[in-house]
Amino acid sequence: MASSSAGFVTGLTAAALATIGVLGYQASASAPADTGRARVSGTPAPGASKAPRDRRHPDALPAGSGRGERVVYSVDDDRVWLVGADNKVQRTFRVTPSTVDPAPGTYAITSRSKQVTGSDGIPVEHVVRFTSVEGVVIGFSAAVNGSTAKPDPDERTGGIRETRADGDAMWRFATIGQRVVVVP
Prior knowledge:
This protein is α+β, with helices and mostly antiparallel strands. It has two domains: about 1-30; about 55-184, L,D-transpeptidase catalytic domain-like. About 20% of the residues lie in helices and about 30% in strands. The chain has helices at about 1-30, 165-175; strands spanning about 70-75, 80-85, 90-95, 105-110, 110-115, 125-135, 135-145, 160, 180-184. Strands 3-2-1-9-4 form a five-stranded mixed beta sheet, with helices on one face. Strands 5-6-7-8 form a four-stranded mixed beta sheet, with helices on one face. This is L,D-transpeptidase.
């Protein structure tokens, strides 16, 4: 009986993995041709709609940013929202953008590092990565020295800088696989 149960569980695991693979393939097949490219101007990627903002409440969650637990990052507003499963904002904060922006779309956290040296040479902590653009890895991080200075515009960097407190919150919230929704 035990081998029958093990076979059943193995079969369910294989079926779940196959389903995930099919969904991943479908998602990648329907991605716009420019997904993952650096944003060259202040305009959204072709085909991306500008999420309506409540200008009286600039920290309000952008409409059209999805549902459920996720990280929402607005490239135009330089703001992040950590949204719980109940679709309520748990925390929102301003960030200092990198010189290379991800295209609007839905991503997932792919890797994390407790402490490393950033692409700009600054020691950073609580690094949460979710995509790359033309070889530049994009993710959220906090400088160990607490600085959030704008990066050198002549350098191609992917670190979206947070304060250390916001970096701690992101680290606790954004584990591997967590959705990241990038809006214009």
